[in-house]
Design brief:
There is one protein chain. This protein is about 50% helix and about 20% strand. The chain contains four helices and three strands; from the N terminus they run ααβααββ. A hairpin with a 5-residue loop joins strand 2 and strand 3. Helix 1 runs antiparallel to helix 3.
Length: about 140
Amino acid sequence: MKNTRWVACVLSLFIVASVSRAAESASKPTLSKERFNAIAGHVDTGGDLLVVANIEGYLEGIVKDLAQWAQISMGRNTASSEAGAVVAKIPGFLGKNGFYAVRGFGMSVVPRSDGLNNVKCFIDRDPAAAELPLWRG
């Protein structure tokens, strides 16, 4: 029961952080519309599923929040101090390698006449991140 409450607390904090980030992006409606059009142009509309998500800034914020929560949950336990040091380095490592360059995500599923589906996925990233390790081909 105690673990269930802890998980519920962490999920609640995660949801609150996500909602606050959504409010920040809502303050830029023209940029949001441009991002939607850029992503939707790479997937098929008119099918069973269309997902277009503007996630610019979300990944970095979520990773930082998760790292902070992990460090808080470790507390002052000396056995976990090394693990805490590793967790503290994760956001910077992901940033240097281009993980935060993702600006949006799109996915569509359109049924075909043969009973199968055409599935398309698209990741919109910052063009300046093309040479970072995650994005090198």
